[in-house]
Amino acid sequence: MSGFRIQYAPPADQACTGMDTALRARFDRAMRLVADHPYGCGSTPIGRETDRREATVADVLIRYYVSRSVLTLTIVRVVYL
């Protein structure tokens, strides 16, 4: 079980919906690792806010917010080629 719940903002959700099946499977596996270690997995803070982060998972760039009080990661941007 993951430490944090993952939710997607509408633009990020729409980008994920457009992924091909193989990429989506790799991406979902990688996101489970991020949910277990939101401050790790090669992520970096954006600016001075440690809870606002960016990472590349399964060759997909994501931006997300960590909400420690409710154990939720909100993915706000997903960019892939």
Q: In terms of structural class, how would the helical and strand content be classed?
A: alpha+beta
- Sheet with the most strands, sense and barrel status: 5 strands, mixed
Radius of gyration: 12 Å
Strand segment tally: 5
Please give the domain count.
1
Strand content: 35-45%
Give the integer mean of the pLDDT values. 95
Number of DSSP helical runs: 2
Helix content: 25-40%
Instruction: Just name the CATH architecture.
Output: 2-Layer Sandwich
**Unreliable stretches covering 5 or more consecutive residues:** none
CATH topology category name: YaeB-like fold
Say which CATH homologous superfamily is assigned: RelE-like
| Secondary-structure element series | EHHEEEE
The coarse silhouette is globular
Distance between the termini: 30 Å
